[in-house]
């Protein structure tokens, strides 16, 4: 076991981890790595299928995603109400593995490929939101607020490493085994994520012993983990509507969705104009993901935890709106392919490396039921609902004759208001942490 102190010292150079937290930190890192590696193996296929269906139809795919989520979220609420965490988390991921197997069969036998492609576009968006939301709910439940500030950046780096490995695997294996067989690779990675979740669950009672007494005081009171959360299947919606704090987080997510959707549609239009070759477009999307993965993991490993601890959750959550302000202003001046790629890379790096870990810390100071039910509503229903509305809004603005540059310019003041909201949420999180 002589290697354990060496590992602890090595990790301490990257993240402010304490000896009792090392095991949970590493399993959390591996869990998120497997989860996002599996998703990013499939993401370039999703983006190509979206363009293949026509960029003018993207708003329909976004709307279909929202409708499916409206049906799925109550089912998830019913599951978590009755089953303990150690059971419902594996069930969620096993369900998606079965879905992947069905898509593999349909695509392998070339059954109604165009419609299967459209369903796959919607499905992968649902899968990503559920899989990642469940992961971060687990993290917010496992770690205290003080621990989250120190550790969530490094844990998020596991996802960034997966986001780096996924496109690399896609580029390497797509020609060798064929795009359809990448589904098998994604299924194996998802099952590996389940294994990591089980390892975390087995050590859950010891995780918070690594925090100091001040951290323990910020830990919300929770009910026993061996039981379900109780409540109705629509309880998460009521929680969001009753709590100004949760409603503020929902608004933050809505503005993220609006800005991200507008940028995604800009990207789709500009890339479609740049090339009509599906292989070229797929390589462009995979290259964007690869660059983002490299930038994000460097920032998360070296700086995220220290930045959030030093400057606070509010400024960290507000960094992304600042990036969108500057990026849309630049895009308004010059809507070029190189610029939209750079903007997409920078904003997603800022999101994954700094603002998203900060947003997840916001949930460490709410009740357990809110971490799974309300957070699920915010991350899935609110986010995809805002996606659908934003998609139709973008289509309406284009229908009115607005150029891409004018739409970019109109988004700048929205991002400014989003920044102010982030600072207010940061102050509210600090107050809740002190009260607990």
Write the layout of secondary structure elements.
Blueprint: H1 3-14, H2 22-52, H3 58-82, H4 85-108, H5 113-142, H6 145-177, H7 182-202, H8 204-207, H9 213-217, H10 235-242, H11 244-274, H12 278-311, H13 313-333, H14 337-362, H15 368-399, H16 404-435
Helix pairs in contact: 2-5, 2-6, 2-7, 2-12, 3-5, 3-15, 4-5, 4-7, 5-15, 6-12, 6-14, 10-11, 10-15, 11-14, 11-15, 11-16, 12-13, 12-14, 13-14, 13-16
Structure notes:
This protein has helices spanning 3-14, 22-52, 58-82, 85-108, 113-142, 145-177, 182-202, 204-207, 213-217, 235-242, 244-274, 278-311, 313-333, 337-362, 368-399, 404-435. The chain is globular. It is an all-alpha fold and 436 residues long. The longest helix has 34 residues, at 278-311. The protein has 16 helices and no strands. Helix content is 85%, strand content 0%.
Q: State the helical fraction.
A: over 70%
Task: Give unreliable regions as ranges.
Answer: 210-224
Series of H and E elements: HHHHHHHHHHHHHHHH
Estimated radius of gyration: 21 Å
* Number of E-type strands: 0
Q: What is the end-to-end distance?
A: 37 Å
The total count of helices amounts to 16
Give the amount of beta strand, in percent.
under 5%
Care to give the gist of this entry?
The chain has 436 residues and is mainly α.
For this entry, give a set of tags.
mainly alpha; 436 residues; globular; single chain; 16 helices
